[in-house]
Design brief:
Layout: E1 20-33, H1 42-51, E2 59-63, E3 67-69, E4 80-91, H2 93-106, E5 121-127, H3 135-142, H4 146-149, H5 168-177, H6 190-196, H7 199-203, E6 206-207
Antiparallel strand pairs: 1-4, 1-5, 2-4, 3-4, 3-6
């Protein structure tokens, strides 16, 4: 994603994950940028990252519009450019996450600050209907109070992303490409999660194109 904590997406999960899935899975990815990379601004960075988003053997299946989002916390940096994508891949969740982290690094991303500006942020939101590491752990992190999110980070990959349902800057673009995707634990679709957010939170996410 962009503005929120991203350390919940770690490739250091000690539990085994399949490197290659037996059948192609649809993975949901959130993209964000609010810092330039050399001469390229955030909009160009997101567009370039989309062209390389799918891992080897994968396919970029759908891309949202680009959106402008106020930085969080307010005043912490320039506005973000956000987008979402669906990729079809046989790569397992851990292998796909490693691919995303490598792509971030190529665009100059360093993981030293949980909230802050960055050239490129790629978050693995979901990998089909996979729940990791298990339903109980995912629920603990999904229900984590906002005041605890600052100081606590999981030590393994959590899927679906535990903050997915809370973030308009993720759900608004995601509704362009996967409105009918259903959370395997809550039973809510992307469209329903978006509708449940406060109107002002949805309204501040503005498309850059029609």
């Amino acid at each position: 994603m962009s503005q929120g904590p991203d350390r919940s997406q770690t490739a250091d999960d000690p539990r085994p994950h399949p490197v290659m899935a037996s059948a192609p899975a649809q993975a949901l990815i959130a993209l964000g940028s609010n810092l330039p990379d050399g001469t390229d601004g955030p909009e160009a960075i997101v567009a370039a990252a989309l062209q390389r988003l799918a891992p080897p053997g994968g396919r970029l299946a759908a891309v949202s519009r680009l959106y402008r989002t106020p930085c969080f916390p307010a005043g912490a940096g320039p506005d973000y450019v956000n987008a979402a994508a669906v990729i079809e891949t046989r790569a397992g969740p851990r292998a796909l996450l490693a691919h995303l982290h490598a792509l971030e690094a190529e665009f100059g991303r360093t993981r030293v600050q949980r909230w802050g500006s960055r050239t490129l942020d790629l978050d693995l939101l979901a990998h089909g209907q996979t729940v990791l590491p298990d339903a109980a752990t995912q629920e603990v992190w999904r229900r984590l109070p906002a005041e605890e999110q600052i100081g606590r980070t999981p030590d393994r990959l959590i899927l679906p992303h535990p903050r997915l349902q809370d973030r308009a800057f993720v759900l608004v673009p995601l509704a362009d490409v996967a409105p009918d995707w259903v959370h395997p634990l809550t039973g809510q679709s992307v469209a329903e999660m978006l509708a449940a957010l406060p109107g002002p939170a949805r309204d501040e996410i503005r498309p850059l194109t029609g």
